[in-house]
Design goal:
Blueprint: E1 7-12, H1 16-27, E2 32-35, H2 42-47, H3 49-68, H4 82-106, E3 110-112, E4 116-118, E5 123-126, E6 131-139, E7 143-145, H5 159-162, E8 171-175, H6 179-190, E9 194-198, H7 210-222, E10 226-228, E11 233-238, E12 244-248, E13 254-256, E14 258-261, E15 265-267, H8 274-277, E16 300-302, H9 313-328, E17 343-345, E18 351-355, H10 358-365, E19 368-375, H11 378-383, E20 389-396, E21 402-408, H12 412-424, H13 429-433
Parallel strand pairs: 1-2, 1-6, 2-3, 6-16, 8-9, 8-14, 9-10
Antiparallel strand pairs: 4-5, 5-6, 7-15, 11-12, 12-13, 17-18, 18-21, 19-20, 20-21
Length: about 450
Amino acid sequence: MADQYDFDLFTIGAGSGGVRASRVAAAHGAKVAIAEEHRVGGTCVIRGCVPKKMLVYGAHFAEDLKDARNFGWKTENCEFDWAVLRDNVLKDVDRLEGAYTDTLENHDVAIFHERAEISGPHEITLASGRKVTAKYILIATGARPRLPECEGAEHAITSNEAFHLDKLPERIIIAGGGYIANEFAGIFNEFGSKVTLVNRSDKLLRGYDPALVDRLLQISIMKGIEFKFNTKFEYIKPCEDGGYFVKLTDCDEERVDQVMFATGRVPNVEGLGLDKAGIEVGDNGEIKVDRFSKTNVDHIYAVGDVTDRVQLTPVAIREGQAFADTVFGGHEPLAVDHSCIPSAVFSHPPIAAVGMTEGEAKNKLGSVKVYQSDFRPMKNVLAGRNERSLFKMVCDGESGEIVGIHMIAPEAAEMMQAAAIAVKAGLTKDDFDATTAIHPTMAEELVLMR
């Protein structure tokens, strides 16, 4: 490796993508450093998927405890203590941060717990003033919640702060229509908050099959979540005795305890010194890269949310791995396949999907066959819960190849992981039909669709 530089690789950002790339590059024998101005672990581990899923688990007990009564359990005197869940989640986040740090240190990656900026083609300047050089630079600075412009926007929280609340809001308005907004709407609703979800358009969960989104909307309304579409914030003003006055277009002013924005995410590129290295960015500030995650500058790469390709943790990890194997592992250049990526929304109940929606398949393939199963899960029947699940399978009309599977059901994400392998592998409806069902399960509906 190059001796004229302090490091073979300098990674800016110790989230999922940056940590994986740094660890693998070091395992290939590179001399690696990583800088992180917040906490090692990044969005997913510290203030994203991991603590969010723990809150989702906590929220599910609200329904489970009600349902348990029809199964013979006496659960009338249960109480929920937000502070206990919050502190246990934060404690586990601390544990994970330690584990990520250990992983880097065990691979002899130098960790700088400070901000790093690019100050020349191969030069990085740290917040302490120290300058270091690197043969390759990897930008993995991720993204952050977008704050819309309205009077008093600074009084709102984002998902970042939701994990640290002193107490649960009695009334909360959540702005947004994506997965973060819908997940937190479900979480707060189960914890007993009165939730209103506000969206500037009439579309929720773009990219997911409309039949599933409609089903989630019906179930959410039934659970007591209120929705306001095609509306924007005029102002958010603090009340003297706590809480906020909120004025939405077309609505009277109302008083709430908390406002949360979940209106998309923006790449973290400000003040990074991209101009000093001549790195091209797109219209939203995202770093432009080729399929090998390389920027327009030959020795500078970027992975994860800062590139705004697919904002999912496993994608950032794959991109980081492919980069390290390509540049330091002596592999033929490896590109991550961004097609057919499965994903989930941890709403109540969750949605999971892989491949094309019915609409996308019709536009692309023309001839399409759709199979579906609309059923009430056995557990819901005995619980007296009038909540139906929906599975959809979209197939190429000519070949029978499955091009998309979409489901809204308890544990949808757990079922989807295995189903996604079949779709990625190009299996057909006949392959599913030839598989014996595991009975009684919800997943058996996947091989029984007509």
